[in-house]
Recover the amino acids of this structure.
């Protein structure tokens, strides 16, 4: 596991510790990639084991703000801004919709509650969802060191190769910035995955088109004309070592209306920017074949004003009343806790270190927290950390010290069942039982947000929970039924 864990309380302290440890320390925002990398034996470039500098106790790093620069509105994301924050942000939905849509495609609610946009960029996998929309938006990345101050680079230059970024050993990512979309712009994001949720992209496409104020003259036999495209930004993910712009397609679209023929030509031209690989998710030939399909589809959406089709006005967050910001404002006293303790199901408990929160909770007797995959795929380890649903297998145990944790043991007991537990019994939602604690935790948090959930809302809340017995119908029955039980069993 990690060789050391430090949790600075100020940005200045974080920069000092990063300068001290250099390449042997990795900064952690969400840790959803980092913990898996460390568990799999990842190490620093010098071959030394990795230590962790956790940024999630530093205030004001999870803010989304705007700034006027030379008459243009810029949006700034702090290094702790999570995917779920972007999903529900009215600003991001209105002025950077492709990013909001991409964030919604990341993992499941528990992962989106921890995973940060900054981490998605630092990992720099070409399949990462948020890179393509940020590239289309013209994003920049600002990094900072204690010795040299800040510097800002275009995202396209910051990502230097496959999983490589221009970040010095003593630097931390300070913010991500991009211009807000204007009234003349429309944008979209499409992801091709192998399943509904928790899927790594086989291919993803982001596009932002700027339309002119005038339209092309109507053609003979046409009732109306198509708007002219002033400029286009089309980004392709998982088709090359890095996310790339489809330059030939962008140039072709400029000054033209979005006719069916023009869309088809631009879709074919997008292939010129791709050099797809073959891997476990798809062959190179399949990816090459799907590029024109997705580019054509996204351009049609933008032409027809359908880019928000299927978008949920009130998506499920599973974060209670926290607004999803780390660090969570705590309304309880921690004075009685010693440094290595946490409130676990209302009682002080000493959590062992240098392991995941999953392992630490089991070590102190919370055996209802299960290990199914150890990489955030199954949801069997779902717990509440400071009232947010998270995956315990992707969180350092030290992060929970001084915080409040609720496991399935803390929801109810045989004499006083939680409404979800009661509904699982009544509906027969329990099969082998291994995954059941995680399902119950996700469902219980859903009921805080939606006291009477619909079946689609229940299914949405459980996208991060995998039942290997494949009996989802009765599980969803139980969640909906729990909403009916809840008013009479507060």
């Amino acid at each position: 596991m990690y060789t050391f864990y430090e949790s600075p309380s100020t940005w200045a302290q974080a920069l000092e510790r990063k300068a001290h440890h250099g390449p042997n320390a990795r900064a952690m925002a969400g840790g959803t990639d980092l913990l898996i990398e460390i568990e799999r034996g990842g190490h620093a470039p010098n071959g030394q084991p990795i230590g962790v500098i956790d940024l999630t106790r530093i205030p004001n790093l999870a803010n989304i703000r705007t700034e006027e620069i030379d008459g243009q509105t810029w949006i700034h994301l702090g290094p702790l801004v999570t995917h779920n924050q972007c999903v529900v942000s009215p600003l991001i939905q209105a002025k950077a919709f492709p990013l909001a849509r991409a964030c919604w495609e990341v993992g499941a609610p528990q992962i989106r509650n921890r995973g940060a946009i900054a981490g998605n960029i630092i990992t720099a996998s070409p399949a990462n969802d948020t890179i393509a929309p940020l590239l289309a938006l013209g994003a920049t990345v600002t990094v900072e060191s204690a010795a040299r101050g800040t510097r800002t680079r275009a995202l396209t230059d910051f990502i230097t190769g496959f999983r490589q970024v221009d970040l010095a050993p003593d630097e931390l990512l300070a913010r991500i910035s991009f211009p807000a979309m204007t009234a003349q712009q429309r944008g979209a994001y499409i992801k091709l995955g192998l399943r509904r949720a928790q899927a790594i992209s086989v291919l993803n496409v982001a596009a932002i088109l700027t339309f002119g104020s005038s339209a092309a003259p109507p053609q003979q036999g046409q009732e109306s004309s198509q708007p002219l495209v002033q400029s286009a930004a089309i980004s392709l993910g998982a088709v090359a070592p890095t996310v790339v712009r489809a330059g030939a397609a962008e140039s072709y679209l400029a000054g033209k209306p979005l006719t069916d023929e023009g869309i088809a030509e631009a879709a074919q031209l997008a292939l010129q920017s791709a050099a797809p690989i073959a891997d476990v998710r798809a062959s190179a030939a399949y990816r090459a074949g799907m590029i024109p399909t997705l580019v054509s589809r996204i351009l049609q959406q933008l032409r027809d004003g359908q880019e928000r089709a299927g978008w949920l006005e009130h998506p499920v967050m599973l974060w209670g009343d926290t607004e999803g910001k780390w660090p969570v404002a705590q309304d309880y006293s921690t004075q009685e806790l010693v440094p290595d303790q946490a409130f676990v199901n209302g009682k002080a408990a000493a959590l062992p270190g240098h392991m995941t929160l999953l392992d630490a909770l089991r070590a102190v007797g919370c055996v209802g927290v299960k290990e199914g995959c150890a990489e955030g795929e199954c949801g069997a380890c779902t717990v509440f950390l400071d009232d947010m649903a998270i995956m315990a297998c992707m969180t350092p145990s030290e992060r929970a010290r001084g915080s409040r944790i609720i496991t399935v043991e803390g929801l109810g007991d045989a004499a006083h069942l939680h409404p979800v537990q009661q509904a699982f019994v009544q509906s027969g939602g329990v099969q082998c039982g291994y995954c059941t604690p995680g399902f119950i935790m996700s469902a219980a948090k859903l009921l805080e947000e939606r006291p009477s959930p619909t079946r689609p809302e229940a299914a949405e809340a459980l996208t991060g929970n995998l039942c290997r017995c494949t009996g989802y119908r009765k599980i969803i029955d139980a969640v909906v039924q729990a909403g009916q039980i809840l008013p009479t069993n507060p």
About this structure: The longest strand covers residues 203-215. The chain has four domains: 5-54, 64-216+225-304, 341-410, 419-488. The radius of gyration is 23 Å.
